[in-house]
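Protein modeling request. Please complete all fields; requests missing the sequence field cannot be processed.
Requester role: graduate student
Desired output: 3D structure, token encoding
Chains: 1
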Amino acid sequence: MSKLLLTVIHRPEMVPEYLEKEAAQGKTEDIARQSVISASLDIFRTQQRIAHENGLKTTIQMTYASLFNDEAVAIAKEHHRVHGDEIGLTLLGLPCKEFREKYKTKDFCIWHFSMEDKREIVKDVFGKFQEVFGFFPQSTGSYYMDAELVSYIKAQYPMVTCAVATCWEEGPKAYRNANNSWYTLNDGGPWNPWIPSRHNIHCPASGEADDVGIVAIPHLSRDLLAVFDGPGSFYGTHPQNVLRGMVYKEGEYPYLFNLIDQYRSLDKYNNGFTYNMVFVGPGWMSKQGRWEAPYSLLEKSYRDCMAYYGELKREGKAEDMTMAEFAGWFRAHRTYTEPTCALWKDILYGSRKQIFWYLDPYMRTCVDMNQGGALVDLRPYVAKLERPVGIGTSHIWDCSYPYLVQSFYRAGFFTHYAGEGSIKSCKVSHAGEEVDLCLCRTRARFSQEGKNRILTLDSVEIEFRDLTVTLVSTITFPEDTGEIRFSRKILTTSRKGAVVHVNDYLTACYGTTEYPEDLSGVVLRCVGSEGENMNDAGHRVAEILYAYKCREETMQGATRVEALVPQVQTKVVAAAISKDVEGTIREGYAFSPMYTLGLAKDLRENEELTTCLKVEKAV
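Delivered output (619 residues):
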């Protein structure tokens, strides 16, 4: 197992939301309340001491409020000198007397402001930092930073090399779990460090010309299965996330260490690269307790977490880096087109469920082995959608990168009505019976051959009334192509010569939340190589302009089926690699607002259907 690269980040918030609310019970608001500031500094010192006692250096991300506090500044300078801690600057923690007097607002989210105000705030915050420390920071961050903001920071302060840029899967599920009060929707981004595109912070850059100029890290390292399935803030390597999720018993939390170890194991899928981070503010260790846990348990959880990382470091299994140090390492060791992969297993409930995450400059996608290897999430990064956020834009609070497939937000296979949900799967039919592989649980093995990442799924057995079929799926991700190749092979049939119909299909839409978007203007096409209705390129074409009319077109000898989705500047193509394939395009209706692309073929024993799904930028 390769060394785990670790970044520990602390921020001296002067007025953490949780502490301020507790101190202000029954009192009028006072953002400069000294009792809160003193308690916050005590906790910050404690967090720093715990890390240093375990031989770990930190990145101290100073908040704007902390820059006006002599004690916080003195601590940062001392720990930089003695322990080698980096002094960075976060755009979290803006609220303070000075900020509110100037900007006349209680907003604290940098991404919510107009671009004009963002520039002014950045100028204020970076200027104050330079005034206090005599230099500009090399790292910055927030819960979310849009590409326009990062581009501005990089242009004005070129020494900035690293930023906390988004929080993995902080979407509708987190909003619901926070009593509909967490107006921060930013899911659809990477779970691991990446070099962002200058067009959209979620998208990995495709090359130097597309590089926004920094290395980005996620706000927290999450459980890639539990967070995707459920609330987005319960399960992470931040120890107080685990306490908030109540994943502990009698003061012990083996899940936390299992989660850290699962991140360590990701070296198997990423050419030896494995990374983890902890990003902690004082509000998480309130003396009043949090998440039904007393302060003693809050502190113990942090001590135990840092002790585990310290032990890994002493054993040569982990290396601690500041944010700037990590940015330098990442640029020296990772390429633009190199994908990030994670074959992730369930460590929370102990099931045998597996999912596989894949991320590159073309797409982010997720394969669910519990649904037979179905694609349950697909984000078309290749479109590099420019989606400015904040006041004055059309996305004031919705920072998410749109999906084409999202089975949790848009029903997936398990719908309660006659329509279709968003998913990519395969149907096998025989003599009037049909089985979707979503009903066939399986497991997967990962391998790499050159620049191909390969998922080989365990075979599944499909039982019809008079026939039993064994089928195996192989899913291949060729690097730097924007393609996913699917092989569906019939291994055995219980009756010699029996034929089954195999339909590899994609049912998709687009959006960022659970609510349907307008599909008007989507164009569906089925393309063949010869026959009637030829176009200028010499191809046979059937076309549907989406109008919610339930229309369907089928073509024998199809070479590809495709959907042009102008709303997200994307074309998604399913191409036939096998010969003599039947292509189908189908539009939905208002109560089932989806579109479906299908490629099908009759197969016998030892025959296979091979297809290629590709996402392209629509021009």
